[in-house]
Design a protein that fits this description.
CATH class: Alpha Beta
Strand content: 15-25%
Largest sheet: 7 strands, parallel
CATH architecture: 3-Layer(aba) Sandwich
Number of domains: 1
Bound molecules: NADP nicotinamide-adenine-dinucleotide phosphate
Structural class: alpha/beta
Helix content: 40-55%
CATH superfamily: NAD(P)-binding Rossmann-like Domain
Number of helices: 10
Strand order of the largest sheet: 3-2-1-4-5-6-7
Order of helices and strands: EHEHEHEHHEHEHHEHH
Shape: globular
Number of strands: 7
């Protein structure tokens, strides 16, 4: 498979973890990267690290939960840079929460960032990419999208939304010159997983995961689930009948 090449990219959730790593990975390869997140100081530190490596990262202070602002800012960047070649909707977070004690504020926050924020990020550039007949949109979903995992109703469902959203786009955009990739990470070390108190099987280092994700992107893979051990396991879990799935989840917790 021929590798794709980019001049410009925008990565959301670039102030830490996978997004930060992806922003640096592409910047170090000559791509001008717009790095978006809320924490300005983290983005400045990232831009400085890139500059030290003669790479170009442009900090973009952005809260993707504000969808109107997200649409407007990303459209502006797309117009001013001569067209974004790659947009990675990576911003996201999860919060364990039992279905017995659901809190609307927490559910809404997850939907605002993982669902509305990701959809706004991608929708901001897609019409222009289709017009230009080039571009690549990437959604960072999760293996948690494969089933409704316990204590993760909002998170699992938010990632299932992104997964299905990317799948429809993939079908619609075939032949337009615009590529679509959906990524499904398993457990990876990051600020998000640092709060987990349970055992995380096949936990990857951030850099390892970034390398796998970036390669899947440049190879133009339509979807990529990793690490293979967890992807295989969740592939089986996905096909389990409900009774078996429910029993397995009760046991796992
Ligand atoms: N780590 C894993 O095991 C794992 C597994 C599967 C999927 N994922 C997915 O991978 C993505 C990256 O997560 P990570 O593991 O790298 O976690 P992380 O280190 O906590 O990074 C999350 C990023 O999202 C940004 N973000 C959160 N809320 C935002 C908002 N309202 N507006 C803009 N940016 C926002 C954060 O930046 P600010 O706080 O500065 O805004 C941060 O840069 C997420 O979508 C996550 O669901 C992670």
């Amino acid at each position: 498979m021929a590798e794709l090449s980019y001049r410009t990219a925008l990565v959301t959730g670039a102030s830490s973890g996978l997004g930060r790593g992806l922003a640096l990975w592409f910047a170090r390869r000559g791509v001008k990267v717009y790095a978006a997140a809320r924490r300005r100081e983290n983005l400045e530190a990232l831009a400085n690290e890139a500059r030290a490596a003669s790479a170009h990262v442009e900090p973009v202070e952005l809260d993707v939960a504000n969808s109107d602002n997200t649409l407007a800012r990303i459209r502006d960047i797309d117009a001013s840079c001569g067209g974004l070649d790659l947009v990675i909707a990576n911003a996201g977070f999860g919060q364990e929460m039992s279905g017995k004690r659901l809190k609307w504020e927490a559910v809404k926050q997850i939907i605002d960032v993982n669902v509305t924020g990701a959809a706004a990020t991608l929708t901001a550039v897609l019409p222009q990419m289709v017009e230009r007949k080039r571009g690549h949109v990437v959604g960072v979903a999760s293996l948690a999208a494969f089933r409704g995992l316990p204590r993760n109703a909002a998170y699992s469902a938010s990632k299932a939304f992104l997964s299905t959203f990317m799948e429809s786009l993939r079908v619609d955009l075939r032949g337009t010159g615009v590529h679509v990739t959906c990524l499904y990470p398993g457990f990876v070390k990051s600020e998000m997983t640092a709060q987990n108190k349970f055992n995380m099987p096949f936990l990857l280092e951030t850099e390892e995961a970034v390398e796998l994700m970036a390669k899947a992107i440049v190879q133009g893979k339509t979807w990529y689930a990793f690490p293979w051990q967890m992807a295989g396991l969740l592939g089986v879990v996905k096909r389990m009948p409900n009774a078996l799935f429910d029993a397995a989840m009760r046991k796992a917790r």
